[in-house]
Amino acid sequence: MLDFDPANSFGYEVSKRYDGPAGRGDEDAAVAFLARLAGDAATRADGNARALELAVGTGRIALPLARAGVRVDGIELSSDMVDRMREKPGGDAIAVTPGDMSSVTTGRGYGLVYLVYNTIGNLLTQDDQVRCFENAARHLVPGGVFVLECGIHDALARRYRHYVNAENIALGSVTLEACQYDPVTQVIDKSHVTIGADGIFLDPIRLRLANPPEFDLMARLAGLRIRDRWGGWDGEPFTAHSWRHVSVYERPA
Ligand SMILES: C[S@@+](CC[C@H](N)C(=O)[O-])C[C@H]1O[C@@H](n2cnc3c(N)ncnc32)[C@H](O)[C@@H]1O
């Protein structure tokens, strides 16, 4: 995409539309999974039940997790996304450190650090993604866990580098994904094209795709080890047919 500026991917316009009327639909299951892990961490990792969300966004997960009794902090690059969180009930209770999740620190240790919704892909090089694992590890107390939720990407196996997916088909609107993938850099350019009664909206994004084996190596470089991998938030087994993974890495005690 010519003239693409990643800093604009989650600017004001996107932040306003981000949560949509129904969210992504996996919030309850994600919060139950993360709350359980935060509770486990509290018993194992020095009694530390605090959680840190890397790229906390509009608080889609952080806010209900905080309502479930977990003290949640966040790191976030986009002030527009944080502004949307502040407008929601409880939005002021989440302490957000502005900046890049691969480098900024909150100065605290956590029993649980998590990064969801394919967001590791917003870091566009392998080095940056490794740095993100290192930063997650830096924030974990001994025995703490880092949860990564990410899609399994079929772009890597496609014959053609350009394709269009029907992402969401509803009665009054359709969202298409127009994609262009570069297998050399593992970077994909996508535009989410939403067509509905309100008009046509383009939400461009650039992501670096990686699958679990590469993430496991990044974790090892960061001093973490894989503890569990699931096919979803309900603890579904991870199989060849899984469309996403929920990976739990631990910092050895
Ligand atoms: C798909 S949204 C996910 C937001 C939230 N975690 C959720 O699950 O709804 C991606 C978020 O990552 C943020 N982001 C992108 N690159 C980032 C970076 N390098 N450091 C911190 N946040 C980043 C964006 O501003 C955006 O809020």
Give structural notes:
25% of the residues lie in helices and 32% in strands. It contains six helices and eleven strands. It has helices at 12-17, 27-44, 62-67, 79-86, 126-139, 212-221, and strands spanning 51-54, 72-76, 95-98, 110-115, 140-151, 162-169, 173-182, 187-196, 199-208, 225-230, 244-250. Strand 1 (51-54), helix 3 and strand 2 (72-76) form a beta-alpha-beta unit. Helix 5 (126-139) crosses helix 6 (212-221). It binds S-adenosylmethionine (SAM). The site of S-adenosylmethionine (SAM) has 19 residues, from strand 2. S-adenosylmethionine (SAM) binds next to strand 2.
Side-by-side strand order of the widest sheet: 3-2-1-4-5-11-10
Helix content range:
10-25%
Let me know the number of strands: 11
What are the bound molecules?
Answer: S-adenosylmethionine
- Calculate Rg over CA atoms: 18 Å
Name the beta content range: 25-35%
- The SSE string, one letter per element, is HHEHEHEEHEEEEEHEE
What does the largest sheet look like?
A: 7 strands, mixed
The end-to-end span amounts to: 45 Å
Number of helices: 6
Shape: globular
Low-confidence stretches: none
Query: What structural class should be given to the helix and strand makeup?
Result: alpha/beta
Summarize model confidence as the mean pLDDT. Answer: 93
